[in-house]
Amino acid sequence: MSYKKVILNEFGGPEVLQVVEEATLPAPGASEVRVKVLAASATFTDTMVRKGIYYGFKETPPLSPGYDMVGVVDKLGAGVTDLEVGQMVADLTVWGAYTEYMIRPEDSLVPVPSGLEPVEAVSMVLSYVTAYQMLHRIAKVQRGQKILVHGAGGAVGTAMLELGKLLDLEIYGTASKSKHELVKSLGATPIDYRNEDFLARIQATGGVDAAFDAIGGENFKRSFNSLKKGGTLVAYGFYDQAMGRGGNVAMDYMSIALWNILPNGRKAVFYSIGALRKKNPEWFKEDLTALFGLLTEGKIKPSIERRMKLEDAAQAHALIEQAAVKGRIVLVINEKLLLKI
Ligand SMILES: NC(=O)c1ccc[n+]([C@@H]2O[C@H](COP(=O)([O-])OP(=O)(O)OC[C@H]3O[C@@H](n4cnc5c(N)ncnc54)[C@H](OP(=O)(O)O)[C@@H]3O)[C@@H](O)[C@H]2O)c1
Question: Which of 90, 152, 245, 277 has its CA 20 to 30 A from that of 286?
């Protein structure tokens, strides 16, 4: 049986993404599972993979992007006993999820409770686990504290706002004007970073307990300076550098290390979902399962601006790089199956 996937034969702009037809389905080996993918997020991180600038990523073209997915178990490899055909599962794949079928190791799959909508469930995997772990495992924020979230109208940003609201946090979120209604609707105070000095705004409130910054460079420094005594900067990306706006990743890492050593009463940490999963795979499973629980209980509802098809992956990437997305985009795959669930 043939199936479709999106591949790139060279790193580059959105136009390198093309849909191809594979003649036969891949077969799972021992301890592996074939998954029929239902939904995959389209994220800023995927655009970095596509450009060949995702730090630490060693794969070379031809390859498919796709950092996360939700699908149903389609075929079990030898020795797989904990999963059943037809069961819904999720995974942080890092690459490869823009496809109708893929092979995954049995032990990397996390069961998705039945009844969850795959498009909402997949939103939990990269963006919400990132937000959840930064809040609970890294900054360890306490109920009622005050935080600063950059990129508050984006995929991780909106997840931060929703999860922060569950902790009754006072949240300031930087975003361009077009995303202010969304930021406000999620209970945060927007700061128009293009026209306002976020540092002055935050200092005028007495500083924050934690700042979450994936912009990089000078922004990290200003976020660090917006902390109260005892506060934590969680740095987790280099958006400006990825967009070709300058910056030096090695220098940023050095600054973070230095700020920790200096006796300034504040902390600075770099968070990476992949590094934390490698160090503590159980946390990833626990946290994703906790998020599925919150979704089941209706306590969170991801801001999904657009649902697009696999064939629209290039358009989705272009929109993300134009910062034209409020919240997030999810690619809906195997649509017919989706309708039945
Ligand atoms: N370390 C990890 O494990 C990890 C995990 C997931 C994501 N990330 C990183 O997190 C970042 C965000 O990812 P995402 O998926 O949320 O991306 P996204 O959905 O594209 O959101 C990024 C948002 O940042 C806003 N923005 C751009 N420049 C800004 C600035 N200078 N100040 C404040 N906001 C700015 C953009 O819109 P406006 O400019 O219109 O406001 C956009 O809404 C990326 O750098 C990604 O690589 C890291």
Answer: 152
**pLDDT on residue 341:** 40
156 and 29 both lie in a single domain:
no
- Last residue of some domain: 274, 290, 320? 274
Site of tokens 């390198």: 16
Residue finishing a domain among 254, 274, 294: 274
Over 60: is that where the pLDDT of 340 sits? no
Query: What is the position in ligand 1's atom list of the atom closest to the CA of 178?
Result: 40
pLDDT beyond 80 at 339 = no
Partners of 308 in beta bridges: 331
213 and 173, same structural domain?
yes
Q: What is the CATH number of the domain that holds 241?
A: 3.40.50.720
| Contact between residue 50 and residue 42 where contact means Cβ atoms under 8 Å apart | no
User: What tens digit of pLDDT does each residue of 222-258 get?
Assistant: 999 999 999 999 999 999 999 999 889 999 999 999 9
Q: Which residues line ligand 1 (CB under 6 A)?
A: 43-45, 126-127, 130, 150-151, 153-157, 174-176, 179, 193, 214-215, 236-237, 239, 271-273, 320, 323, 325
Distance 44 CA to ligand 1 centre (A): 7
- Whole domain around residue 246: which residue ranges? 128-274
The token pair that represents 132 in the structure block: 């959840």
